[in-house]
Amino acid sequence: MNRIRAAEILIEKIKKDYREDVAVVVIMGSTIYGETHHLSDLDLYYVVNTARGYELAKTFIIDGIGYDFWPISWERIERIANYEERITSIVTEGKILYYGSDEDLKRFNEIKMKALDCSDTLKFIRKSEAVLGNAFKPLFLLNQASTLSQARNLGVQVMFSVTNAIALLNRDMVRRGRGKLKAELLKMEKRPQDFEKLYDVLFESMEVHEIKSSLTELVNQMVQLINREKQNDEMANPVSVKDRLAGFYEELINFYNKIRRSEEIGDTVTAFFAANEINIELCDVFSGTGVALDVLPDLMARYDPNDMEAFYLTARLHQKALESLLANNGVTVTVYNDFEALAEVYA
Predict the structure, then answer these.
(1) In Å, how far are 165, 167, 224 from 137, measured between CA atoms?
(2) Which of 132, 271, 260 is nearest to 190 (CA)?
(3) pLDDT tens across 311-342, in order?
(4) Does an H or E element contain 181, and which?
């Protein structure tokens, strides 16, 4: 059976009744790779210009094969092209079968070119790290699993995030998946050192503890790999501390003030949260600058709800040390003596 006939029927209907509603029809998957067989489906989607375009959506079966006329918005195509979903290849690899206007074709191709631009290394490192974060919940649940079925189901979720993170770290994408996934990733330069061995355990082992152990190690190796790539990028492309931290301390000072107020009223819990938020903010803003934060005292280590005096002293020292660190890196903090001084600025 010529399954492309399904796409032809859809396009005929668009040309007849939905010309203004559908922008492009795109085919993807095994058909464009020339790898179809007698059980292959037809991977196809269409981009809508109007809400009316969604009316064409339909799923059905012919001769035991499932079909899906899958509508998608321009907004989602933009997100996919920005690697916010795993399926970026539907934009970069898809073949346009139909377009409604030259403007529609141009818009789609511009989005495709954006998806193909992988020049921003740090952007992809951060996306890889964020995607890997999705592995931690199923990994936690996996380590509580008691049956092989539970281990395999949760293991697939972990592997799903890890493999996507590997692709992103390589400024690439998963194109084929399933049975071809391992071979696809083995062609990528940056991957956990024991990737192939740890990957195979999920699909070959009959032991729950082996699946748990292998996927935990795979995630650990991936975390280490991402951290190394972040450090390499920071050394190769240092960020200007002066530019990055302009206006930062003027906001952060309020967390120190929360700690001061906590000291006055004996609110140890608020002090704990404020110290944690200071650490998070500092780690985030100094990331990529190459500036070490080990010159700052460890606030969280000094927290003791039964003896807060040392903690509050450390907080004051921490604030002074940060002010010195900023000054040494050319960061100017904006301070006005009073509201009249502020009024003069806006006069």
Answers:
(1) 15, 20, 18
(2) 132
(3) 999 999 999 999 999 999 999 999 999 999 99
(4) helix 181-186
b vs e for 55-70, b when ≥16 Cβ sit within 10 Å of the residue's Cβ?
ebeeeeeeeeeebebe
Would you state the structure tokens that stand for residue 109, as one six-digit string? 């191709």
**Fold (topology level) of 121-236:** Four Helix Bundle (Hemerythrin (Met), subunit A) (1.20.120)
- Chain segment 57-99, per-residue pLDDT in tens: 999 999 898 888 999 999 999 999 999 999 999 999 999 999 9
- How many Å apart are CA 347 and CA 343, to the nearest integer? 6
What are the φ and ψ backbone dihedral angles of 189, each rounded to 5 degrees?
A: -70, -45
Strand 65-73 vs strand 43-48: parallel, antiparallel, or unpaired?
parallel
Instruction: Give the distance between the most distant pair of CA atoms in the chain.
Output: 81
Q: Are 188 and 173 in contact, with CB atoms under 8 Å apart?
A: no
How far apart, in whole angstroms, are the C-alpha atoms of residue 243 and residue 329?
10
CA dihedral 8, 9, 10, 14 (to 10 degrees): 100
CATH code assigned to 4-116: 3.30.460.10
Coil, strand or helix at 74: helix
* Model pLDDT for residues 10-36, shown as the tens digit of each residue: 999 999 999 999 999 999 876 666 666
Q: What is the pTM of this model?
A: 0.83
* C-alpha–C-alpha distance, residues 274 and 258, integer Å: 7
262's tokens: 């906590």
Q: Cα–Cα distance between 321 and 66 in angstroms, integer?
A: 64
Task: Measure CA of the first residue to CA of the last residue in the chain; give whole Å.
Answer: 77
DSSP conformation class of 267: -
Residue 9 backbone dihedrals phi, psi, to 5 degrees: -65, -40
Task: Provide DSSP, 83-148.
Answer: TSSTTTHHHHT-EEEEES-HHHHHHHHHHHHHHH----HHHHHHHHHHHHHTTHHHHHHHTT--SH
Tell me the one-letter amino acid at 18: Y
